[in-house]
Amino acid sequence: MSKILRIGTRDSQLAVWQATLVQQQLLQLGVQSELVYIKSEGDIDLVTPLYAIGVQGVFTRTLDAALLGNKIDIAVHSMKDVPTQLAQGIQQAAVLQRASYKDLLVFKGDTSFLNDAQSTAVIATSSIRRKAQWLSRYPNHTIENLRGNVNTRLQKVAQNPWNGAIFAAAGLERIAVRPAESIELDWMLPAPAQGAIMVVCRENDTAAAAACAPLHHPATAICTRIERDFLKTLMGGCSTPISALAQIQNDTLYFEGNIFSLDGKQKAETKKSVPYTPENPQLTTLGTDAAREVLAAGGKTIAEAIRNATV
């Protein structure tokens, strides 16, 4: 395309890194672009827990408005922040190849508190998904709220008398700030689409869509779609501790998903595997089917209790 593509991004270091990655990949294709910095509501309010803000798309809707207002041509998002239903007039232009999907613990001092389920410790996170899974494993731990961009959260960890805090590995690794005092939480199931980046554009902007099409990674797109279908069917959002992971290994797609009660004491989960072939119709409905299994296995009761508790 001949015109300079305007890339909308939040102004945090991680968001800019992600937008710059898209800019660099577009440049390799001969597409010129510029970054347009837009502050989101999620960046302005650093006190209220994410689940209490009460809206989906808290990190994306300001960019959506700029996109629909023709102030930018594409927007770059952490895919896990994007609502499962895109705003009217906006379409997915590309899903980039996924980085690490894992959560990790940034700790202070020793990690002996991880070896005993009956230990006491203070762990910081604003994610109720992480909170519920952590309390399920360590019921005697205390969870503190932790908000802000990656750098702000790391600074708060250093300043407060906590034992540790939970971060997305991809976020720390992308901007090269992962501390040496950190360990991956292999037992913790991630948020749907964690570690993936989504690029969106206006539905009628065929030029922007065509420019971004070569950035699309089909395998990542399929896995994250299944995870987001699972989330959507369970009617989950920032206020619901829902986790999902789809992975392709040796021509098989493996899926895990769960929903926890807010205190981590109840859980409904599922594990599935299907052949990974383009023509397999099971891939189309896998996320939805898995969610229905979870609902039937106690997930409906958990979800209703969460909705009643947050009304």
From TrEMBL:
Task: List the catalytic activities from the record.
Answer: 4 porphobilinogen + H2O = hydroxymethylbilane + 4 NH4(+)
What keyword terms does UniProt attach to this protein?
Porphyrin biosynthesis, Transferase
Instruction: Name the job this protein performs.
Output: Tetrapolymerization of the monopyrrole PBG into the hydroxymethylbilane pre-uroporphyrinogen in several discrete steps.
To which species is this protein native?
Deminuibacter soli
Q: What is this protein's record name?
A: Hydroxymethylbilane synthase
Q: Where is the signal peptide?
A: none
Gene Ontology molecular function, alphabetical: hydroxymethylbilane synthase activity
Name the coenzymes or cofactors required.
dipyrromethane
What EC number(s) are associated with this protein in UniProt?
2.5.1.61
Under the heading InterPro entries, the entry gives: HemC, Porphobilin_deaminase_cofac_BS, Porphobilin_deaminase_N, Porphobilinogen_deaminase_C, Porphobilinogen_deaminase_C_sf
